[in-house]
Amino acid sequence: MALKGWRLILNRAIFIPQRYVFGIMGLFALANSFTMRVCLSITIVTMVTHVPPTEHIQGETCPDPSLAISDVSINKTVNAVIETARQKYDWDEKTQGLLLSAFYYGYVLTHLPGGLLAEKFGGKWTLGLSLLSTSVATVLTPWVVSMWGAVGLFIIRVVEGLGEGPVTPAFVLLMARWVPPSERSRFGAMIFGGAQIGNIAGPYISGLLLADGGDWANVFYVFGGFGIIWFIFFTLLCYSTPNSHPFISDEERNYLNANIVASGLHKKLPPVPFKALLRSVELWVLVAAAVGHDWGYFTMITDLPKYFSDVLKFNIKDTGLMSALPYIAMYICSFIFASFCDLCIKKKWHSITTGRKIYTTLSSTTPAIFIILASYSGCDRTQAVGYFVASMAFMAGFYSSVKINAMDIAPNYAGTCSAFVNGLAAVSGIITPYLVGLLTPDQTLQQWRLAFWTIFVVLIGTNILYLIWGSGEQQWWDDVEKHGYPENWKHGPLKTRPVDTEKKVVIPKHDHSPVL
Q: Average pLDDT for residues 481-500, to the nearest whole number?
């Protein structure tokens, strides 16, 4: 049916394909979600009272160039920080650690519920309302802290984590509905690569807002306000499926319907087949691969700045810059890997399964090797930073493999599977900061080397599991009508969708097109 009226006007005004509009809005969404996630890491420095250490453990740490600075300069710097801060709180290191980890307590809990909600009501509103709740909570953070201190901040950070939990499963479901298999690596890099933009922009913009005595509350107002603005545009421009989009062109709609295998585009799906899903080896090895990646990734996010500062003795300004370099490399390489992966799949130079295994290996084994090399670089700053940058650059292969593999094996239940995978993997965000703290009480080179060897073992071990049992093919339980039951299935039939004998047209609640 040809577009008419306001739909035709909007279609011509937004002249790029609607799936690219979705991709761009997705990039901004992930970037903003990560700025809200990481902004506390730098803001908390100006929120608490700070007493410079009077001594430092020597021996297995690097020489500190800042010791050459006179005591007068140090005192002036400390006094300037104290005088320009808006408000100070007396929170010890243990309290600060709990506050920084609070986000992940909420984040883990809402992955699976978020995936189920996305499949029932549509990815658009699950994603939009989730990020809106996080944005509102971020804007309210300064007021909550002023009223209830550390307890209030802990609770509001848990709420922010609860809001962001459904984001990844909702995006995976939306991509399964909007992106053909031959374009998924590029879209995965574009959308999920937004996380690296957030990792770069969050600390950098926070630093600008906090410079020269800036009010720390402004950090939360800016990032939370941006999220609210994003929500308005997202609700106007994006929809759960191509068939529910009011001003998509007929050409693009027909192209997507012809190239996307998710049957949820055309009919209401049966209940989530948990009985088969929980027995799927392919899904469990995907969980293992995701755990391996998150183990290394979260360690880099939370603890690499500490390594640069406490071991390599970079000053605060240089620590921020050095910490950003790996994510810049990761973001750039995510597009390089994604484009090449999509090209190989489109040209049929290798299968989807082979492609996912290649880039899982690149994003696991290669970073593990570079991280170990960095740990043996000693006090050579240039060499250590170079190895860390290389490790994160190769970790970008994750966006062309593990991150999007759920929509390969289960395009109809991509939201639930992604929630299951990411929810379990995100537990690494709670474990790794605590484990690194146990292994590095004195911040020495030898202690950190042990922490890095732990990352190496986890990355290599999980990669081996994925190489053996990983898959890029749709699993039978994702569409029983199409694939049937395997011969060795002995657990009874899966639940099916009730047949409505009175109505010939079924219009699901989650924006899918009717079945005639």
A: 79
CA distance 248 to 242: 7
Interatomic CA distance for residues 269 and 262, integer angstroms: 10
- Cα separations (Å) of 235 from 11, 126, 239? 16, 11, 8
pLDDT in tens, 194-228: 888 898 888 778 877 877 777 889 999 999 999 99
Mean pLDDT taken over the chain:
81
Question: Is 91 within 8 Å of 99 (Cβ atoms)?
Answer: yes
* Distance (Å, whole) CA 107 – CA 161: 4
Other CB atoms within 10 A of residue 51 CB: 7
Three-state DSSP state, 89? strand
Backbone angles phi, psi at 310, to 5 degrees: -85, -30
Q: Torsion angle, CA of 7/9/13/14, rounded to 10 degrees?
A: 10
**How far is residue 285's CA from residue 280's CA, in Å, rounded to a whole number?**
9
Q: What is the pLDDT of residue 200?
A: 85
Residue type, 199: N
Count of CB atoms within 10 A of residue 181's CB? 20
Return d(Cα 255, Cα 264) in angstroms, integer: 16
Give which of 196, 194, 166 is closest to 297, Cα–Cα. 196
Beta bridge pairs of residue 380 = none
Phi, psi (deg, nearest 5) at residue 477: -75, -10
C-alpha to C-alpha distance for 249 and 247, rounded to whole angstroms:
6
Handedness of CA 481, 487, 488, 491 (dihedral sign): positive
Tokens at residue 453, please?
């060897």
What is the token pair recorded at 2? Answer: 């040809």
HSE on the CB side for 125, CA within 13 Å? 9
Q: Are 410 and 475 in contact (CB under 8 A)?
A: yes
User: 361 pLDDT exceeds 70?
Assistant: yes
Question: Coil, strand, or helix at residue 10?
Answer: helix
CA distances from 431 to 309, 363, 411 (A): 22, 21, 31
- Indicate if the pLDDT at residue 71 is higher than 60: no
What domains can you pick out in the chain, each with its CATH number?
8-51+79-242 (1.20.1250.20), 274-479 (1.20.1250.20)
Token duo for residue 111:
């992955």
For the record, the structure tokens of 450 come out as 């042990």
Residue 257 and residue 264: Cα distance in Å, rounded? 11
Statement: residue 276 has pLDDT above 60: yes
Angle between helix 381-395 and 281-306 (nearest 10): 150
Secondary structure class of 515 (helix, strand, coil): strand
Residue among 296, 309, 334, 329 at smallest CA distance from 443: 309
Could you give the count of Cα atoms lying within 13 Å of 123 in the half-sphere of its Cβ? 31
Structure tokens at 56: 């430092």
| Residue 321 near residue 441 (C-beta atoms within 8 A) | no
From CA 299, how far away is CA 383, in angstroms rounded?
20
pLDDT band at 157 (very low <50, low <70, confident <90, very high): very high
